[in-house]
Structure formats: structure tokens, C-alpha cells
Design a protein that fits this description.
Blueprint (H helix, E strand, L loop, with lengths): L5 H10 L17 H7 L12 H7 L6 H19 L5 E2 L13 E6 L4 H13 L4 E3 L23 H7 L2 E5 L6 H19 L18 H11 L3 H7 L2 H12 L9 E4 L5 H8 L5 E5 L2 H7 L7 E4 L13 E6 L12 H8 E12 L7 H9 L3 E9 L7 E8 L10
Parallel strand pairs: 5-6, 5-8, 6-7, 8-9
Antiparallel strand pairs: 1-2, 2-4, 3-4, 9-11, 10-11
Length: 408
């Protein structure tokens, strides 16, 4: 077609298969982008991306099609599992009779305002993820852009409610599992930060600064169990838990036997599970917390035990110990560390979150054990998620040969 009519030229280019903004690749196109954007809703969106060259590239790969499909499903399921720990993400299920060949992931953001959805897209984009929303004006799948299909745009309130937070993320075959772990981490990190309440108080119900005895600790957590999760979603603690779980992927194998010390209601356990770290045991002082966890399938075993006392585990049992929000505010005795050294395998990892404002109450003993060649500090990072205090993630590795014997 030869024409000097910009509108006709733009229409023909769009009708020939300009998927999204591919019209910009046409060398002879009218240069007015606004003209294309105005016409797009009135031109059926044919995606004519097959060409002789494309066919020539694809044809030798047909024999590998089943393998490619299997790998695509594996990548898809891996990312779905990572996002499964987020209660504000809904991933639609598929019919059993449908044979999938996924090259993208669709999910809905639940309970977010329009501004929060926009912020989610903006912040994930800043970190390298191109997430599109089906119910936005710049998306060719948005039904309001299909004005060629009807004379008057219909009012579809239920549809709008769904697609206004429906996300689309491409999953190229070049992505490996490390890439998917990072993608899942970024999505959760951005979303958890957005969901934090803008509140001056991290703990509206109050938080004890210092415990006189172990019964006070047990009573506090038994009382807290009914609203513990909500409070920690609101104050941003889930940002820290997601960060710990992702960080541990660099140190642990998927089948590592892990003890979650002070597992509480299982918030950290869910994050560890989501990244494939599922060989978990939980230990806590609160009977009500453990009762809540019994039927949730997060941990393979639960123990009601008290730190500072002899634990029921054999020597050198665990590949890793993890603990958040436990070694703080005089909740546990300083001598608790010796039992943890005993039950950790040589070369095993102890990841512990400490409160900076405790003025190294628990970090000083850790340094002493490192000086005695019982532990080696391999990682330390300050993390600020709460408004009232700062935290440090410390990762220690148990020495293969202890230079000082543990007390009996």
C-alpha cells in the first residue's frame, strides 16, 4: 500500500499486526505516536508475528517441544510456590483437562487500592520486572480498548474489579531457578513494603521491653497468638522474613534439616517453605502458638521447649538453625547458645536476627564463641523494617572441630 495519508498508513500498520507498540519498528511509519494510540482501540489487534524467518527458526525445535513445555511448567510452578506465602496474591488455577505450556504468569493483587497497584507496578519496574495490568489503558487486552467490537463501551463492574489488579509477567525460557527466586523475592519485597501500615506504632497493643522471667515470656506469646500475624503484616516484619528466607538460599541445600527456633505462628516457616526449604522443625515456648501450627503443614515436627534448658535433640542434628525476634529484650538466657552449638552439625549454619537497640546483649556472647573457634561469622547485615528499632541478620557457621569442649 502506498499512501500519503498518515491516518490510513497508521491504520494499515496496526491492522497488519502491531502487537502492543511494535508499530515503532516500522521504518516508513508516520512519526506521530499519538495517532497510533488514538487508532489502536478501533483496530482489531491481530498478532501476526509469524514470518518465514520465524518459521525457519522454530521448525528444528518442534522435536523438543514436549521438553520445552515440561521445563516451562516447572519454571511456572516454581514461581507460583514462592508467591504462595503471600495472602494478598491470588493465582488462578487451571482445569485439569487443559494442557499448559506457560510462558507467562498471571496473578491478582487482593485488597490493594488503585494507587497501591500503580505503586506495585512502578516499584517492580524500577527493579527490573516488567509487570502489566490487564485493566489499564495501555494494555491491548483491556476490553475498553476493543472499541471495534461494539458501538458503545459496556459497563462491566465485576470485570473491572478483577482486571484492575490482574497482573501479567512474562517467563522467558532463558530464566533459570536463580532468576525465578530473585523475581519472587522482588515481588514479595515490593508488595510487603506497600502493605505496611503508615502507623507511628509498630505494635499498637504494646511490646514488653524487658522480661523478668520465662513465665512472662510464655504468657506474652500465648496472649499474642490470635493477632500476631496481622500485627506483623501491618508493621512490615514480613519484609525481613522474606529477606532472610531468600538470603539463606545461598547457604543451604533444598533438603537441609532446619530448626526454626521460636517458630511462633509460622511466619518465617511459610517463607522458607515458599523458597523450597521444607525440611523444617519448629521449636517454641508458647503452647498456643504450637497448637495453631499443628494442622498447617509448615513444619514436619513441633517441639514445646525452653531455651536455656537441655534440648531434646541429639548432638549434630541440624544443618541449619534460624531465629527471628527471639534473642532480644532478655527473652532467653545467654547460655542458650551452647545447646544450639551442640545440636548444630559441624559446618552447619545459624542465622539469627538481633535487635541493634539491645546494645549487643546477645551479640557479645556470639563474638566470644567465634573467638573460641566454635563459630565463624560469615555474614552480617543491618536491616531496618520497623520504626521503633533496627535489626541485624547475623549468619554463623559452626566450626568443624571445636577448640573448646561444651559443658555437660
Amino acid at each position: 500500500i502506498a499512501t500519503n495519508n498518515p491516518q490510513l498508513a497508521a491504520y494499515c500498520i496496526l491492522a497488519a499486526g502491531s502487537y502492543e507498540k511494535l508499530y515503532k519498528k516500522h521504518l516508513a511509519r508516520p512519526l506521530d505516536d499519538n495517532l497510533f494510540e488514538e487508532l489502536k482501540p478501533h483496530v482489531p489487534n491481530f498478532s501476526l508475528r509469524m514470518s518465514n524467518l520465524t518459521a525457519a527458526v522454530l521448525r528444528p525445535q518442534i522435536k523438543h517441544l514436549e521438553q520445552k513445555i515440561s521445563q516451562g511448567i516447572e519454571r511456572y510452578d516454581h514461581l507460583v510456590e514462592i508467591l504462595s506465602s503471600v495472602r494478598n496474591i491470588y493465582i488462578p488455577s487451571h482445569e485439569d483437562k487443559v494442557k499448559r505450556a506457560p510462558d507467562s504468569l498471571q496473578f491478582n493483587l487482593l485488597g490493594l487500592t488503585s494507587k497501591q497497584v500503580d505503586k506495585f507496578v512502578e516499584h517492580t519496574h524500577e527493579r527490573g520486572l516488567a509487570i502489566q495490568i490487564f485493566g489499564k489503558g495501555d494494555n491491548s487486552r483491556y476490553y475498553k480498548n476493543w472499541q471495534y467490537s461494539f458501538t458503545e463501551t459496556p459497563i462491566l463492574e465485576k470485570t473491572e474489579a478483577i482486571i484492575s489488579s490482574a497482573c501479567d509477567l512474562r517467563l522467558p525460557s532463558s530464566f533459570d531457578f536463580d532468576d525465578l527466586n530473585l523475581i519472587g523475592y522482588i515481588i514479595k519485597d515490593v508488595l510487603y513494603n506497600i502493605l505496611r501500615k503508615d502507623d507511628d506504632q509498630d505494635y499498637p497493643t504494646g511490646l514488653t521491653d524487658y522480661f523478668e522471667n520465662i513465665e512472662e515470656v510464655r504468657g506474652k506469646y500465648d496472649t499474642w497468638v490470635s493477632f500476631y500475624d496481622q500485627e506483623h503484616y501491618d508493621n512490615g516484619w514480613t519484609v525481613l522474613l522474606n529477606h532472610i528466607a531468600y538470603t539463606l538460599l545461598s547457604y543451604l541445600k533444598k533438603d537441609a534439616l532446619i530448626l526454626d527456633i521460636g517458630c511462633g505462628t509460622g511466619l518465617l516457616g511459610r517463607e522458607l517453605n515458599s523458597y523450597g526449604l521444607k525440611n523444617l522443625q519448629g521449636l517454641d515456648i508458647s503452647p498456643k502458638s504450637l497448637d495453631l501450627l499443628k494442622d498447617q503443614g509448615i513444619y514436619n515436627g513441633l517441639q514445646l521447649e525452653e531455651l536455656g534448658e537441655t534440648l531434646s535433640f541429639a548432638d549434630n542434628t541440624f544443618d541449619a538453625l534460624v531465629s527471628t525476634g527471639v534473642f532480644t529484650r532478655n527473652q532467653v538466657p545467654l547460655e542458650s547458645f551452647e545447646e544450639l552449638i551442640r545440636i548444630l552439625k559441624p559446618g552447619g549454619i545459624f542465622a539469627v536476627v538481633l535487635r541493634v537497640e539491645d546494645n549487643d546483649l546477645y551479640y557479645n556472647p556470639i563474638k566470644n564463641y567465634c573467638a573460641m573457634k566454635m563459630w565463624q561469622e560469615v555474614f552480617k547485615e543491618r536491616i531496618t523494617v520497623l520504626r521503633s528499632c533496627n535489626h541485624e541478620l547475623v549468619i554463623l557457621r559452626k566450626e568443624s572441630i571445636l577448640s573448646v569442649p561444651l559443658r555437660k
